């Protein structure tokens, strides 16, 4: 039976528990990341070999990109963030830094920043790995290899174009480049997507379901990361990758530390470890993403498959992050209400 | 007496009412792509949602799906609940537990099972192809039918258990008396069992209808990216479009529609029962 005395004692104990630190400062950190290969590679190449010897225990908070970004924003006024390191893509990294969610990365605490390729350096995040949006195709069905993003608009692929719903904004950006649009004006891209809609493209809920559709040859052509194409090809899915002549859209996967992290020391050590050359090469071998640090050397045959040539790198067509943020709602509405509906 | 309900009241107030009030406040704010939202008191988000044909369509799909799934669940659940209620065997408790088994598996895991069954390379298509009955896979997944099947599988145990407890409370002697007086099995059901079970039927339907209106995982995983119900649309606004005020307004519209239909349905059926 609950007496008044025991209730008061219990309440007091609860109050006391609230004042205790949930975990010791810097001795353990939570990394918000994708699951699957990405999470496993972090564990194998960073958490265990690089963080454990420093006395830092790492636990992962696994989720997709959209919920993680939403969680970070929802928690921005909280006393503490539920994660100390957040793995994010470049669009979200810009948005989160604009909204004041991310801490500035101190160069002194992340010395490996000196090795980062200059073009990738940003104040509120570190670049982890990168790739580019390419045209993925089944060589036995698409006999003339595509050369441009616009090839997915070809009427001969009616009903055979497959797109991943989770890459909605990157699909829009790729289609926009293909249609001759500019990073700040998606009018041409939207018009081209509406024309594509008449050719009954299939939109799959995830990258994995798109992979299954490519494998079963339900769809023949798609827009996808070069790295994913590499992985899927390794897994026996009949795909080849074509880097668009007009210039490919780059994607950077980054990591940052929320301002309200209670273990910033450990978190910055983690960012530093993410820039370790060996760890980055491991990501390249398994997932096909290219390192962002100058001293990570890839074996020649691997580099050929997953890297862009110098000429292709010179032609990269980066996003205009300010446009992507300002148009996030409008683009999402277009994708859901007009293109997919 | 008040002290007894105080802990539950505090928990509900803190964990449900508090966030709901916050959400209501957000729904009156103004969307800003650069600042997330600007503090305001405007009904514009509600007006936008109601006047947009896309969201009217999403609401229509949600209502249609919820009504159809509730009706089908009732049709499937009533005979099973009757059989369970009238069971006298020692296996009765085992059958009751077995009815509950689907609830032990989360919606996402269950939907993954349906993917394995209904997918293009799933069990059904693979079997039909193996038997030489089809050359191209049947489109079973990513269809409204798949969502209906998946949703019914989730809500059926709720209906069966609610109905069986009510049917159990109807004395068997009442049915036997009707039969003795010459009523056919159908008449016994129509004139005796159905009216007496109506309060439980209403409760079961309300419970199932609310669950169907708020279907999320099943709609996303089995309906695919082109099929849209309200709960995924709310999530999309928060998580993808970053338009929290509009997402909050959609959430309240869904809540209001569910509440209104639930109250109306209960009142109408309750009145019928009272007669």
Automatic annotation (TrEMBL), chain A:
It comes from the Bacteria. Keywords: Periplasm, Signal. InterPro entries: SBP, TAT_signal. The keyword Signal applies. One of its GO terms (biological process) is thiamine transport. The keyword Transport does not apply. Gene3D superfamilies: Periplasmic binding protein-like II. Pfam families: SBP_bac_8. Residues 1-24 form the signal peptide. SUPFAM superfamilies: Periplasmic binding protein-like II. One of its GO terms (cellular component) is outer membrane-bounded periplasmic space. GO terms for molecular function: thiamine binding; thiamine pyrophosphate binding. This is Extracellular solute-binding protein. It comes from Methylobacterium terricola.
Automatic annotation (TrEMBL), chain B:
Residues 59-265 form the ABC transmembrane type-1 domain. The chain crosses the membrane at residues 63-82, 94-119, 139-161, 196-224, 244-269. It is found in: Cell membrane. It holds the Pfam family BPD_transp_1. Its main location: membrane. PROSITE patterns: ABC_TM1 (PS50928). InterPro entries: MetI-like, MetI-like_sf. Keywords: Cell membrane, Membrane, Transmembrane, Transmembrane helix, Transport. It is a multi-pass membrane protein. GO terms for cellular component: plasma membrane. GO terms for biological process: transmembrane transport. Belongs to the binding-protein-dependent transport system permease family. CysTW subfamily. PANTHER family: ABC TRANSPORTER PERMEASE PROTEIN, INNER MEMBRANE ABC TRANSPORTER PERMEASE PROTEIN YDCU-RELATED-RELATED. This is ABC transporter permease. It comes from Methylobacterium terricola.
């Amino acid at each position: 039976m609950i007496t008044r005395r025991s209730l008061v004692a219990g309440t007091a104990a609860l109050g006391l528990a609230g004042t205790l630190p949930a975990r010791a400062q810097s001795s353990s950190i939570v990394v918000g990341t994708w699951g699957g290969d990405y999470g496993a590679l972090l564990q194998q190449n960073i958490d265990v070999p690089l963080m454990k010897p420093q006395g830092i225990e790492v636990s992962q908070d696994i989720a997709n990109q959209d919920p993680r970004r939403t969680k970070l924003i929802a928690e921005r006024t909280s006393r503490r963030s539920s994660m100390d390191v957040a793995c994010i893509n470049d669009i979200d990294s810009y948005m989160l830094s604009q909204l004041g969610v991310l801490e500035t990365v101190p160069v002194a605490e992340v010395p490996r920043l000196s090795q980062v390729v200059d073009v990738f350096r940003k104040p509120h995040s570190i670049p982890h790995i990168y790739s580019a949006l390419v045209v993925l195709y089944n060589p036995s069905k698409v006999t003339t290899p595509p050369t441009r993003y616009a090839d997915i608009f070809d009427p001969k692929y009616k009903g055979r174009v497959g797109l991943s719903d989770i890459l909605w904004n990157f699909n829009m950006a790729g289609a926009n480049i293909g249609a001759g649009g500019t990073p700040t004006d998606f009018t041409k891209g939207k018009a081209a997507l509406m024309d594509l809609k008449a050719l009954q493209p299939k939109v799959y809920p995830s990258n994995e379901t798109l992979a299954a559709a490519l494998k079963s040859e339900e769809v023949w052509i798609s827009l996808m990361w070069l790295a994913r194409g590499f992985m899927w090809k390794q897994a026996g899915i009949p795909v080849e990758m074509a880097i668009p002549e007009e210039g490919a859209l780059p994607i950077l996967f980054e990591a940052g530390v929320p301002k309200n992290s209670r273990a910033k020391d450990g978190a910055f050590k983690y960012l530093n470890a993410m820039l370790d050359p060996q760890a980055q090469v491991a990501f390249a071998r398994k997932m096909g993403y290219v390192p962002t640090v100058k001293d990570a050397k890839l074996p020649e045959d691997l580099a050929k498959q997953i890297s862009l040539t110098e000429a292709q790198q010179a032609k990269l067509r980066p996003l205009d992050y300010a446009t992507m943020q300002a148009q996030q709602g409008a683009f999402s509405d277009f994708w859901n209400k007009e293109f997919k509906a | 007496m008040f002290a007894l309900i105080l802990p539950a009241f505090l928990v509900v107030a803190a964990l449900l009412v508090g966030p709901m009030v916050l959400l209501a406040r957000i729904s009156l704010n103004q969307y800003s792509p650069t600042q997330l939202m600007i503090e305001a008191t405007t009904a514009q988000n509600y007006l936008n949602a109601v006047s947009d044909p896309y969201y009217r369509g999403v609401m229509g799909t949600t209502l249609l799906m919820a009504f159809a799934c509730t009706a089908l669940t009732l049709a499937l659940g009533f005979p099973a609940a009757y059989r369970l209620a009238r069971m006298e065997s020692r296996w009765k408790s085992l059958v009751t537990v077995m009815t509950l088994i689907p609830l032990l598996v989360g919606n996402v895991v269950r939907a993954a099972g349906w993917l394995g069954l209904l997918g293009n390379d799933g069990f059904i298509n693979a079997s039909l192809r193996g038997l030489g009955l089809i050359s191209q896979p049947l489109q079973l997944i990513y269809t409204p039918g798949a969502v209906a099947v998946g949703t019914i599988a989730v809500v059926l145990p709720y209906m069966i258990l609610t109905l069986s407890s009510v049917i159990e409370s109807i004395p068997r002697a009442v049915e036997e008396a009707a039969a003795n007086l010459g009523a056919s099995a159908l008449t016994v059901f129509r004139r005796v069992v159905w009216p007496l079970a109506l309060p439980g039927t209403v409760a079961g339907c309300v419970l199932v209808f609310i669950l169907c209106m708020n279907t999320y995982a099943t709609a996303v995983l089995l309906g695919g990216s082109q099929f849209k119900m309200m709960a995924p649309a709310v999530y999309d606004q928060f998580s993808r479009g970053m338009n929290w005020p509009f997402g909050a307004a959609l959430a309240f519209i869904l809540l209001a529609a569910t509440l209104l239909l639930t109250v109306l349905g209960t009142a109408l059926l309750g009145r019928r029962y009272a007669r």
